[in-house]
Design a protein that fits this description.
Number of strands: 14
Strand order of the largest sheet: 3-4-5-6-8-7
Oligomer: single chain
Order of helices and strands: EEHEEEEHEEHHEEEEHHHHHEEHHHHH
Helix content: 25-40%
CATH architecture of the largest domain: Orthogonal Bundle
Largest sheet: 6 strands, antiparallel
Strand content: 15-25%
Shape: globular
Number of domains: 2
């Protein structure tokens, strides 16, 4: 390959093969139609790739069904983490409720030429692909309600067995079968038991809880934060907190939710606290406070905005279609606000969330919903997807157009902005 260096005007040769070798280092490259473990014939279709390895579609010659084979890189770190994932998956499904709580089931695991391999049922597509197929216009509250209830039910189950997923994001929630709204939580490669926390640098940045950003001790509550971010993104089509780095991520959160409470800042890792926070200046004679400010202020054009404004496009979505009334939005915004409580000790639990009016089809007590018409985060109106029905035709179900497009647009690699 020949490229132009704009700094010196000279033409130079770049060996792209070295870049490819670096990307594929540690990956297993199967031969065409290679059979793994005596039964899984690789079809050649790549379903996903990441730092851990890759996921390939295969045909199980024993059960005559399609499967997804997750082939881990042959590096010791990833092999150890794969063993942890295997143990957690096995542990979850020893519970009588494992199959009923929207968690993907591992059907087999083995080692092939030094690579740990995990086998899963072949699912449809993930929620990021659903968003992508809608051209990032977002999906309707009716469908979000179905997705959200299942996700929260899975969190309730995980909390009951002390498992923290640690990497919930749209790519790790898949539609179990086309044209149905049943979902499965996948990818427990970063997961841990709540009493055996090993890693401190976890979660993809856009969905990373404040306690992780601040270097605090963490619990199952970090997964609930991720769910709050996911639900808003599913509806708006855009990540809620799209920070470029740690300080920018904090600024994005403060811009929407307000300043991190002082008692939370004081629980932060001392180096993080000193680098990113400063005590508010005290006026002479005033009682000292525990309030803090960010050392790096938000840019002047980053005006504060509310969750209500973000979710309703400044009120433009209100009453545009069924299930998007003021009361519907009041329920939705109240739920995600409780999920996005900065203080993890006050964040809503899965059991409490399942009793929320958003899932009970009843109005909030003493609350009247409404759109904040002062601000909008996007310039144009959008058409939301509504629901996915198991037996309707495309003529009856407008969402099948989205589900068909999602199947045609499988992503080979995760979106680059999701990690780090």
């Amino acid at each position: 390959m020949v490229s132009k260096d704009p700094t010196d005007g000279l033409t130079k040769h770049v060996d792209t093969s070295k870049k490819v070798d670096k990307i594929m280092a540690g990956h297993y490259v199967p031969a065409e139609n290679e059979v793994l473990h005596g039964r899984y014939r690789i079809t050649g279709k790549k379903l996903g790739m990441g730092t851990f390895g890759q996921v390939l579609e295969a045909y199980d010659e024993t059960s005559s069904q399609g499967v997804a084979v997750k082939i881990i890189k042959n590096h010791s770190h990833f092999s150890v983490q794969a063993q942890t994932e295997i143990k957690i998956l096995q542990y979850m499904h020893t519970s009588t409720h494992g199959d009923r709580c929207h968690i993907v089931r591992m059907v087999d695991h083995f080692t092939h030429k030094g690579h740990e391999c995990l086998v899963f049922p072949l699912c449809s597509y993930n929620l990021y692909e659903l968003l992508r197929s809608s051209q990032f216009k977002g999906v309707g509250l009716k469908l979000i309600r179905k997705f959200a209830k299942q996700i929260v039910e899975s969190l309730e189950f995980l909390a009951s067995i002390n498992v923290i997923h640690c990497d919930l994001k749209p790519e790790n929630i898949v539609i179990a079968r086309p044209n149905r709204s049943n979902i499965k939580i996948i990818d427990f490669g970063s997961s841990c038991l709540s009493d055996k926390r090993v890693h401190t640098y976890i979660q993809s940045r856009f969905y990373r809880a404040p306690e992780i950003l601040l270097g605090m001790k963490y619990t199952t509550a970090i997964d609930m934060w991720s769910v709050g971010c996911i639900l808003v993104e599913l509806h708006t089509g855009s990540p809620l907190f799209a920070g470029q780095d740690l300080p920018d991520q904090l600024r994005k959160i403060v811009q929407v939710l307000g300043m991190v409470p002082g008692h939370v800042v004081e629980q932060a890792n001392p180096s993080v606290r000193c680098e990113y926070f400063a005590r508010e200046q005290q006026h002479p004679g005033c009682t000292p406070t525990r309030n803090y400010t960010l050392r790096k202020k938000c840019p002047a054009n980053d005006a504060p905005m509310s969750l209500e404004s973000i979710c309703t496009l400044g009120g433009r979505r209100l009453n545009k279609e069924p299930d998007h009334s003021s009361d519907d939005y009041a329920q939705f915004v109240d739920l995600v606000t409780r999920m996005l409580e900065i203080d993890p000790a006050r964040r809503i639990t899965p059991a409490m969330a399942l009793r929320h009016p958003f899932f009970q089809d009843r109005p909030l007590p003493h609350t009247r919903g409404g759109g904040d018409k002062k601000r909008a985060t996007k310039p144009a109106d959008v058409s939301m997807t509504d629901d996915i029905h198991p037996t309707t035709t495309t003529e009856d179900d407008p969402c099948q157009e989205y589900t068909h497009r999602a199947k045609q647009r499988k992503l080979l690699v995760p979106p680059p902005h999701r990690d780090g």
